[in-house]
Amino acid sequence: MVALLERRLLFVTGKGGVGKTTVAAALALLAAERGRRTLLCEADPKADLAAFLETGPLSFAEREVAPGLWAMAVDTEASLREYLHLNLRIPLVGRIGPLAKAFDFVATAAPGVREILTVGKLCYEVREARWDLVVVDASATGHIVAQLGAPQAINRLLQVGLVRQQTGWMLDILSNPACTGLCIVSTPEEMPVTETLELAARVAGQTSVELAAVVVNRVLPELFGRGEEEVFEGLDSSERVAALGEAVGGDVGPVLSAARLAVTMRRTSAGHLQRLRAGIPPGVPMLYVPYLFSRSHGLRSTRQVAAALSAELGY
Amino acid sequence: MDQLLAAKEIVVSCGSGGVGKTTMAAAAATMGAVHHGGRVLVVTVDPARRLADALGLSGLGNKETRVPPEAFADAGLTPRGELWAAMLDTRQSWDALVRRHAPDLRTAEQILGNPLYQNLASRFVHSHGYIAMERLYEIHSEGTYDLIVVDTPPSRNALDFLDAPERMAEFFSSRLLRWLTVPYRSRLATMASRPFYQVADRVLGSQFLQDVAEFFLLFQTMHDGFVARAEAVTRLLRDKRTTFLVVSTLEEAPMREAEAFVDALSDRGFHLGAVVLNKVLPAYLRAPAPAGAARRLASGAEELGRRVSRDGEDPAQVARVLGEVAESFLNFALVACREAEQEAELAVRPQVVATVPFFDTDIYDLAGLAKLGERMWR
Fold this sequence. Notes:
The structure holds two protein chains of two kinds.
Chain A: E1 9-14, H1 20-33, E2 38-42, H2 49-53, E3 63-66, E4 69-73, H3 76-88, H4 96-109, H5 113-127, E5 133-137, H6 141-148, H7 150-157, H8 162-165, H9 167-174, E6 180-186, H10 190-206, E7 210-219, H11 228-235, H12 238-248, H13 253-279, E8 286-290, H14 299-312
Parallel strand pairs in A: 1-5, 1-6, 2-4, 2-5, 6-7, 7-8
Antiparallel strand pairs in A: 3-4
Helix pairs in contact in A: 1-14, 3-4, 3-5, 5-7, 5-9, 6-10, 7-9, 10-13
Chain B: H1 2-7, E1 10-14, H2 21-36, E2 38-44, H3 49-54, E3 65-66, H4 69-74, E4 81-87, H5 90-101, H6 105-113, H7 115-123, H8 127-142, E5 147-151, H9 160-173, H10 175-180, H11 184-189, H12 194-204, H13 206-220, H14 223-238, E6 242-248, H15 252-268, E7 272-280, H16 288-299, H17 301-308, H18 315-345, E8 353-357, H19 366-377
Parallel strand pairs in B: 1-5, 1-6, 2-4, 2-5, 6-7, 7-8
Antiparallel strand pairs in B: 3-4
Helix pairs in contact in B: 2-19, 5-6, 8-9, 8-14, 9-14, 12-13, 16-18, 17-18
């Protein structure tokens, strides 16, 4: 399988709340640091990519946000405008407002029309070869198949027309595993694991995009090594708790309780992790990002995730 | 909370994905049945497998099923009332809606068979949100239940479902819809729409546009019924008997959404019943005394290992364990403090805030739901 960051187009998806946007930003940062000219695209209207890079609001026109890293937000209307301009060469600038509104309306009912504009723009950036890598903060698990499968949906729906003619080159890009890959972000919890496994199956069945990696975010550390858990259990007697308490000048009961909580949390998550590992096709790399005991979510934690991913990718 | 479940007929559980709003809806319904009796229904959207099993839902669509009394007995509970559960099947609900509002059977079948409809039903913006509220209205108007707790579907924007009924009405009344459904020939003659169709024909092909027009023409036959219905749904959401639970964890993004929710509810005149903060870490993690003990434990681990190790234990290993335990406490303490800060910043009346502690195992049976419910009550 082609190394994750050696591809040209990387879609990052995941269930809401698992850290999809952080991982997308971290992968893009990492690629840029490794000398790949990288474009990071926000294609999920709900995401707030700018906050994870601590940069101003993103727009359709890309902007360099870190050395070697450009960022933009894909928006349907701007994509349509660019598309019409490039393909029809009509000076529509003045009239596009109501037109886009009407288009929006049609796109509401027609499968893939809205998505094809987003995917089309992303594929266009790849085809124009201005970047080594395009990382997409894509739709969440509920909508990603519609996004990735847009060209097929359009082919089924439209018999003629310019859009249909153009699905061919998009499919070439999307279905080439050396070029395009999907990265699913998950956490070791019940619902995210279930959604990841369901999505992996749907992506394989309904799109031509290869599953390039599964990133497991917020993996709790193993507290104890071999034999240490028994030692820990042994500490939990009133006499030893008292001795320790006396030595440190305070009650250590809560400290031991917290450790017990951490051990149970880890054990519960290990079960989910095992189910995930068993359900992901062999050969798909799984990258683990540890739970960050950090103050906030911003550039600092994005960088920490990037460092963890870097280690996982063997850099 | 108890008062809320006793006095209201409808409880809507909302919040961003992954915060446990489905579980919370199920816990509230369980408590409603246990404490207050009557017939209680929980409508869930996409429950985790084990939760669905616990509620006796086998995934058979919209059908309401009763949670067997034996299940309560097994969990050591004697409910005063009955607990029923149903899953929201978006597709099935849409089909029922079309059948209800189409002028005749033939039109209904034409709409249902149209490929655009099939897409509309599964992907129409707000469709999940709308259909959930529509289904709620349907069930409520049948008058079979004393309390209905409804979970809200995941959507791009968690607020979608609040506006969905109104948007639906707007959609049907919009100029664009009329515009699209003007017969194809006369449309080309209309000055206003000409540029759109010229471009659209080239880009999408005129056949497709005809399909779209035909579909909307059919769809428009349902206009009056739909609009009236959407208005009734909005009225029900605004009714005194309806209340909303906003569920969140104390993480940054879900909290931001929860705050937006609280604002949106008050803007629209909906009733905020409670903000439920879920998976809150134990309070001792935020207390200064244990943190001090943990810090001294961390710095003195080596010495303490020697001092407390028993015969047969390796003092160095005991020291390592003590060090790990202390570090782990301090790590979680940092998270707990961050969360406390989030909670303090939450701008709502403290009376409506309920916190539910972090449970160290997943909740997947009635006993677990009842335990969760009891904690929500305190």
